[in-house]
Design goal:
InterPro entries: AAA+_ATPase, ABC_transporter-like_ATP-bd, ABC_transporter-like_CS, Metal_Ion_Import_ABC, P-loop_NTPase. Pfam families: ABC_tran. The chain is an alpha/beta fold and 244 residues long. It is built from eight helices and nine strands. The radius of gyration is 18 Å and the shape is globular. The chain binds adenosine-5'-triphosphate. The site of adenosine-5'-triphosphate has 11 residues, from helix 1.
């Protein structure tokens, strides 16, 4: 089953083709790692999937309703000087389906508290976002997507600049979301994290994409260098990588 498919997709930035002939389906209830070197087109593909970048050719077929699609950009891209507390941020997860002007009911607040407890941030409920550590901020942002009941979740390097304990919490929550049927796409650079999390891999290189099994990628990588934790990934050419 797949609610998200790419059909001969071609994407460009600034008039230059970034990706072409991109096909395939993201599995529902699975976590797909999106990998590639800097500039390979990961953010460009995410923008297209989120409907923020029109394809030059081909199409993105997304059967998840817009209000159930969530995107967590890279931390550096976020302006968190906006005066808002952790709880307020999490509650905004209701906006895509309920609107931002209606206020919240008791059930919303109860759910918000459950989510903060799940993410270990109950004690930060009233803390302004600008006063959070990277890991605390990432927990709060993931909490917002839980509140939204996201069925398609795209995360751009969610584990960058966060502590190990937070990585564990985020991974557990993502795994739970996938178990409940969500389609999850994660931009990842770390080999160990990929091995722990990914059910499937889409490798972008040289303007093309290739679907690779995590095992094939890890075998390829372990042939290049010994397996040690927290190793940055090296990227085989997309046209020769592993098996589809
Ligand atoms: N707004 C833009 N205008 C022109 N070119 C752009 C724009 N955004 C990205 N590009 C170019 O498009 C290509 C793909 O960029 P993209 O940000 O998608 O790569 P990425 O794989 O996400 O990289 P990174 O790992 O560094 O985040 C790069 O060559 C980049 O320079």
């Amino acid at each position: 089953m797949s609610r998200l498919q790419l059909h001969d997709l071609q994407l460009a930035r600034g008039g230059q083709t970034v990706l072409e002939h991109l096909d395939g389906r993201f599995q529902d209830g699975a976590i797909t790692a999106l990998i590639g070197a800097n500039g390979a087109g990961k953010s460009t593909l995410i923008a297209a999937i989120m409907g923020m970048l029109a394809p030059v050719a081909g199409s993105v077929e997304c059967r998840v309703p817009r209000e159930r699609c969530a995107w967590l950009p890279q931390q550096l891209a976020l302006d968190l000087t906006f005066p808002m507390s952790v709880e307020e941020l999490i509650m905004t997860g209701t906006w895509p389906s309920h609107g931002g002007l209606k206020g919240y009911c008791a059930a919303h607040y109860r759910r918000g508290r459950e989510i903060m407890a799940r993410l270990g941030i109950s004690h930060l409920a009233h803390r302004p976002l600008g006063e959070l550590s990277g890991g605390q901020r990432q927990r709060a942002l993931l909490g917002r997507t839980l509140m939204q009941e996201a069925e398609l979740l795209l995360l751009d390097e969610p584990f960058a600049n966060v502590d190990i304990e937070t990585v564990d919490v985020l991974m557990e929550v993502l795994r739970d979301m996938a178990r409940q049927g969500a389609t999850i796409i994660v931009v990842i650079h770390d080999m160990e994290q990929l091995a722990r999390l990914a059910d499937d891999v889409l490798l972008l290189a040289g303007g093309h994409g290739r679907w690779v099994s995590p095992d094939a990628l890890l075998d390829h990588h372990s042939g290049l260098v010994p397996r040690v934790p927290r190793l940055p990934l090296t990227f085989p050419d997309a046209s020769h990588a592993g098996t589809a």
